[in-house]
Amino acid sequence: MLKKVLLFLLLSASCRATSGLTGTWTGRLESPDKVGVRFVLEEDAGTITGRVYWEDPKTLVFEPEGTLVGVSDGGTVSWRSESDVTVVGTVRDTVLEGTLTFPVDEEALPGTPLSARITLTR
Question: Does some domain include residue 8?
Answer without folding.
Answer: no
